[in-house]
Write a structure and sequence with these properties.
This protein is of the alpha+beta class. The protein has 8 helices and 9 strands. It folds into 3 domains: 70 residues, no CATH class; 111 residues, Winged helix-like DNA-binding domain superfamily/Winged helix DNA-binding domain (Arc Repressor Mutant, subunit A, Orthogonal Bundle), CATH 1.10.10.10; 33 residues. The chain is globular, with a radius of gyration of 22 Å.
Length: 244
């Protein structure tokens, strides 16, 4: 959640069970990341006695480290071409069974990835159950439970498991999104939502009123999208595809 508390900067707050983690800018220059909980026994399985302060501190330090690590991933993620190609190929199990690869434009997969990268799971050491993911995945897909059942989500998660992006925690129903799995999910989401979808919309269904906006009032980001679209138009025309 992003909260406006009438301060110079908004506060980012991520809730988990009875606690939360908040992040804000202090004195214009210092980024502060703080954890808080109203029930350490419920949230972290640690007693309230003073002698339990060191393990509690270690647990909270780990939460903050994971929180900052994934924020760095969000800002800067890299994947080489061969790895991206391999992710799109089917996975063949030792018994010969083939599991479909990951696609850059598959709505169910992208909705699941949206759920996986939510900050709330960082407080749980990155672990979750399929039932944890289900409501957020439905919300991202914008469908009713009858249209996307829990079994379908488990199948989609199985594909990520086959690619080594997710691991099953032994003797439990919980899973963990691995660090490189988080990065891969971000790459897929960025490619689709920040590149493919906006450019496709700008080419196929441009908004006519945009043409009347003075250039100095167009945001820098929109100017860059426009420049890419124009460059693509020039390229298509140069190779003769537009005429064809």
């Amino acid at each position: 959640m992003i909260e406006d508390l009438n301060l110079p900067n908004p506060v980012i707050r991520s809730h988990y069970r009875k606690g939360f983690l908040k992040q804000y800018v202090r004195d214009r220059f210092i980024l502060r990341t703080e954890t808080a909980t109203n029930n350490i026994s419920t949230d972290y399985g640690i007693g309230k006695a003073v002698e339990n302060l060191p393990p509690l501190q270690k647990r909270l330090d780990g939460i903050i480290d994971r929180y900052l690590d994934v924020q760095q991933d969000i800002l800067e993620t890299f994947v080489d071409r061969e790895e991206l190609r391999q992710l799109t190929q089917p996975t063949v199990l030792p018994n010969g069974r083939r599991i479909p690869g990951l696609k850059l434009d598959q709505p169910r997969q992208l909705a699941l990835m949206h759920s996986l990268v939510r900050f709330c799971y960082l407080a749980a050491e990155g672990t979750f159950t399929t039932r944890d993911l289900y409501p957020q995945t439905l919300q991202a897909l914008q469908v009713a439970p009858e249209e996307y059942k829990l079994g379908s989500l488990r199948y989609d998660l199985w594909k990520l498991l086959a690619k080594g992006l997710v691991e099953k925690i032994p003797h439990s129903r919980r899973y963990r999104l691995l660090p490189h799995g988080y990065q891969i999910c971000l790459v897929f989401l960025k490619l689709y939502e920040k590149i493919y979808a906006p450019l496709t919309a700008g080419i196929l269904q441009p908004f006519a009123a945009d043409q009347s906006i003075p250039k100095e009032k167009i945001t820098a980001l929109d100017r860059r999208y426009t420049a890419v679209i124009q460059a693509l138009d020039d390229l298509v025309e140069a190779v003769g595809l537009k005429a064809a």
